[in-house]
Amino acid sequence: MATPHINAEKGDFAPAVLMPGDPKRAERMANLLMPDAKVVSDVRGIKAFTGEVDGKPLSIMASGMGQPSLAIYVTELFTEFDVERVIRVGTCGGLSDVVKIGDVVIANGAHYEGVINTHLIPETHFSAVASHNLVQAAWEAAEGDPGVVVAPVISRDRFYDVPREVDEAAARVGTAGAEMEAGALYGLAARHGKQALAVLTVSDHLTVDSVDMTAEERETNFQKALKLAVAAALS
Ligand code: HPA
């Protein structure tokens, strides 16, 4: 049955969902991967697509920005639409010097700001970690590419007004990047007995002065992240 934010029927979603932040990117990904996909939901301009890749069912739907927005969609997908795994495909700001702009981070864990996971899982000192089988599938699909790293990120509830020393402190403990969704995604997967992963392209760098990617580089690096995310989704 339809939920407040997803006007689809049970059975309209594949067990695996790829989830970028941006609804326009979701549409581009769907056009690229499964041109015959059906639009199964369109509440608030967040279209969800379901089709097949290599004969396997797949859905694509955006999360919007930030942990609260992602949590609304992912909770409804896990509890009402029988979705078993969600793979976020997005960007992060680089933090540690193990990554440079254009690299892809397979986020094996997500430190997090905010209270979503404390509310979801109050009885333990919860660590937001990715599903190992999905990390492994994405890592194998990278085939030794030196521009792909497995490392934790930090999921913040703010984009602006983060002091540089806060970024540097996160980098010192091996945090590869900052983004705004993975922590809640991993918490929701744990809470509902499901699987989750985030595959993130480093779009800018927060502690190392560097030059932004060209449009062409962005596209190439996005394709790389997408390949790893699809491999994890269909594994
Ligand atoms: N913070 C900083 N830079 C970023 C982010 C973020 O959440 N996402 C992509 N670049």
Distance between the termini: 28 Å
Low-confidence runs = none
**What is the H/E string?**
EHEEEHEEHHEHEHEH
- Tally of individual helices: 7
Query: What is the CATH third-level topology name?
Result: Rossmann fold
Instruction: Please identify, by name, the CATH architecture.
Output: 3-Layer(aba) Sandwich
Helix content: 25-40%
**Largest β sheet strand count, sense and barrel closure:** 5 strands, mixed, barrel
**CATH superfamily heading:** Nucleoside phosphorylase domain
Counted up, domains total 1
What is the 3D shape?
Answer: globular
Chain-averaged pLDDT: 96
Strand residues, percent: 25-35%
**Strand arrangement across the biggest beta sheet:** 5-8-7-6-9
Strands, count: 9
Computed over alpha carbons, the radius of gyration is 17 Å
Characterize the structure shown.
This protein is of the alpha/beta class and 235 residues long. It has a single domain, classed as Rossmann fold (3-Layer(aba) Sandwich), CATH 3.40.50.1580. It has helices at 23-33, 67-80, 116-120, 132-142, 164-172, 182-192, 215-234; strands at residues 16-19, 38-41, 48-53, 56-61, 85-94, 104-112, 148-155, 177-179, 195-205. A five-stranded mixed beta barrel has the order 5-8-7-6-9, surrounded by five helices. β3 and β4 (56-61) form a beta hairpin. α2 (67-80) packs parallel to α6 and α4 packs across α7. The longest helix has 20 residues, at 215-234. The protein starts with 15 loop residues before the first strand and ends with a helix. The structure holds hypoxanthine. Hypoxanthine is lined by residues 91-93, 156, 159, 178-180, 203-204, 206.
